[in-house]
User: Fold this.
Amino acid sequence: MNVMARSRAESAKRVGDRVEVTLSDGRVITGSHCLMAVGAIPNSADMGLEEAGVRLKDSGHIWTDKVSRTTAPGVYAAGDVTGVFALASVAAMQGRIAMYHFLGDAVAPLNLKTVSANVFTDPEIATVGYTQADVDAGRIDARAVKLPLLRNPRAKMQGIRDGFVKIFCRPGTGIVVGGCVVAPRASELIHPISLAVDNNLTVEQVAKAFTVYPSLSGSIAEVARQLHTRKTSAEA
Assistant:
């Protein structure tokens, strides 16, 4: 598969039983089908929101703070219309925060760095927290260990040859700040790393927790152990 990232399509036309797509840099891609995914816009116009004191962004999204409040007293908003990550899990969390805040309970503000996401490809690609791109760009100083699933005994039993587990932690403290899992059902495997990121757990704490043997989650604990070893070696 050739993934042409950061490319923009200019036009598409049918040529016989094929489709030709011309990119903005002049390149032409030929295929059997062309799928157009143009995104979505918020359906917030002509609803009386602005008249009620609800501030809209230029894009039409509803402005909210970290606890889902709009600019109108007593009015909350959640989901894609807020312009935050367009994920069902984020929408649900925004809704829960809004409800508990309205009821007077103490709530933690929405922290987008703790959001886990998954690409449902084969294998799946799940991420949470900071990424390798963040580290490369200098947005955070972090150590990383990447462990191929080929070394995992359960993966060998199931014939899984592709995939890996990667965890990022802060040097010195060992606090887990991000992770990536590429594997079948990575959407399930990312949850332990999400817990670590959300609760500022260290690689030592992740490594000490028991995992079932054999299991794919064992690779998460093994990566944490390797990060602990590297952190200790660096300090020595």
In short: The chain has six helices and eight strands. The mean pLDDT is 94. The first strand starts at residue 9 and ends at 15.
